[in-house]
Amino acid sequence: DIQMTQSPASLSASLEEIVTITCQASQNIGNWLAWYQQKPGKSPQLLIYGTTSLADGVPSRFSGSRSGTQYSLKISRLQVEDIGIYYCQQASSTPYTFGAGTKLELK
Amino acid sequence: EVQLQQSGAELVKPGASVKLSCKTSGYTFSNYYMSWLKQMPGQNIEWIGNIYGGNGGTGYNQKFKGKATLTVDKSSSTAYMDLSSLTSEDSAVYFCARKNYGYNFFDYWGQGVMVTVSS
Question: How large is the average pLDDT for residues A5-34?
């Protein structure tokens, strides 16, 4: 199975700050990478797919990028509604696997 | 509007089975795969498997073979997951999620159902 190593596990940031979360894939997954946001007691919501494509309705302050097998999610100006847990998911091969999550909190 | 409505919380005894449902609306059920995913409290998300709404074809995570059985009822646009021989390790929230055909991501999710295995 492909392992997705996500970091950091938790992150505290201020409003308007730039936030970056990364995922390292254990092997080449090309651009088959998605990011999700999950709020307490809710189901995950798709943010980005295909490494860089924004899902419908997702604010443009979210962006995704890739360098080799390292993938990044960037929030350009953190807002209150961005608080939650973020997960990456490799979509290259089954079983689809997720990172362990990054808990984003307000400082 | 695409909607995935899951059945309610379950409290089941060890060794028993449970059948979860995911009723869909707002899209053509037979054109998409439905996936099921497991999330234990405070834990990572695991992909259990998926089933094609058109012909019921399935694919499973090896880890869940023998534990989960996926089925569909096209007439009611509903997906089901049977979980058997339940233990405390099966206590978790289970989600159904529609899988995008081209990119293999999950674009719509059910609200999740909590399954608690306890005597």
Answer: 97
